[in-house]
Write a structure and sequence with these properties.
The complex is a heterodimer of chains A (about 80) and B (about 140). Chain A is mostly helical and about 80 residues long. Chain A contains 2 helices and no strands. In chain A, α1 runs antiparallel to α2. Chain B is elongated and about 60 Å long. Chain B is built from 6 helices and no strands. The chains are: A mainly alpha (about 80), B mainly alpha (about 140).
């Protein structure tokens, strides 16, 4: 199938960006509820938030690599 | 929930095609509306996707009828509220596994607020001068 490889690459990019988006939104939600938490749990939530931030950052790096594998728009065989 | 296929072979104009697409997508939203009132998680997720499909369809029809732009904007707001309901649920389940109980309670509160916001948006959209009125007139679903 023509452009099948590009379609797969695009689908992969969509999946990676979707996961990065989920982590971003969850981190923001955690930030919203964090001030209302008791001290001990607030610290644990902060650690979890940092882990989420790092994972999001790794996903974005992977998305960048996936994007660089795609041919430029207007590409024709 | 998968989108319903739309039969367009017999349409005679682009306006009629747009009207039929909007009517089918609007009917999907209406069918899923009760999920918001039952606070049914899977149903609200499907409703959000249905709102997205309808909004995308309307964004291509805003020039053919005044007011559809306002409908699309309201659908966007409803989508945001329903998206937050879903995100609170997903994060809540993740935190439950880590025994972050106070966080789970706070997220449940946020989720309830988002559901209330969604319900208010839904009610307002159907009010006398609500933002769904131009869509109801455009699709002919007056009885909705």
């Amino acid at each position: 199938m023509e452009c099948a490889a590009e379609r797969t690459e695009l689908a992969d990019l969509g999946t990676i960006l979707g996961k990065a988006r989920d982590l971003h939104v969850q981190r923001k939600l955690l930030d919203r509820v964090r001030p209302t938490l008791p001290d001990g749990e607030r610290r644990r939530a902060k650690k979890l938030r940092e882990r989420m931030r790092r994972r999001e950052s790794r996903r974005l790096d992977r998305a960048q690599k996936a994007l660089s594998r795609l041919p430029p728009f207007g590409f024709s065989r | 929930m998968k989108a319903q296929p739309i039969e367009l072979a017999d349409v005679s104009s682009s306006l009629e095609g747009m009207r039929r697409i909007a009517a089918v997508r609007f009917a999907e939203v209406l069918a899923l509306g009760p999920a918001l009132h039952r606070a049914d998680a899977a149903g609200m997720h499907d409703l959000r996707i249905a709102c997205k499909r309808l909004r995308y369809a309307l964004e291509r029809s805003t020039s053919v009828r005044r007011g559809l732009n306002r409908t699309a904007q309201q659908l966007g707001r409803l989508q945001d509220a329903l998206g937050e309901v879903h995100d609170c649920g997903v994060l809540g389940r993740k935190l439950e596994g880590r025994s972050l109980h106070a966080s789970v309670t706070a997220l449940q509160r946020e989720r309830r607020r988002s559901i209330d916001r969604g319900r208010r948006l839904w009610r307002r959209a159907f009010a006398r001068r609500g933002s769904f009125k131009p869509l109801i007139a455009f699709t002919g679903l007056e009885g909705a």
